[in-house]
Amino acid sequence: RTISNSVPVGLWIANADGKCTFVNETWINRTGVSFEETMRDGWVKGVLEEDKREMLQKFETAFSNKAHFKGEFRLKRADGQLRWCLTEGYPFNNAEGEFVGYAGSVTDITDKRTAQDELEKTVNERTKSLRQKNKELKTSEEKYHRMTEEVQDYAILLLDKDGTIMNWNS
Q: What would the 3-class secondary structure string for the chain be?
């Protein structure tokens, strides 16, 4: 308990019936849900409604397959903050090899998600800007080609910096 209560992530254990049998103090302090209430499925109390169904479905699917699972959800903490969390659960067996439940963790990934969202926003803004610049370039090229093709009395040559002919009119 001392070790589990000193880590900066929430830790949990569920038995073979899928009922929570342990959470560390980090989880209790973040959620404000008592140990006793958490043992009665109170662990989902702070999870946003929009995320509950998906998280419960992932847990139930993994549990029935006795497989590792991973999921992200938003949690309203005891202090009112809305935080993004990553939970992972690992099935474990007793000494006889019988499945006895899951052990898992809940990590606050809000800073990572915020940085990721900012990066995506920057990429989207840059992409939009590049599309606009490409559109402007295409329009400019079309004007150039129309202009050079319309001139019949003069030869128009486009040279690169080394003097190589790149384009010419008819």
A: CHHHHHCCCEEEEEECCCCEEEECHHHHHHHCCCHHHHHCCHHHCCECHHHHHHHHHHHHHHHHHCCCEEEEEEEECCCCCEEEEEEEEEEEECCCCCEEEEEEEEEECHHHHHHHHHHHHHHHHHHHHHHHHHHHHHHHHHHHHHHHHHCCCCCCEEECCCCCEEEECC
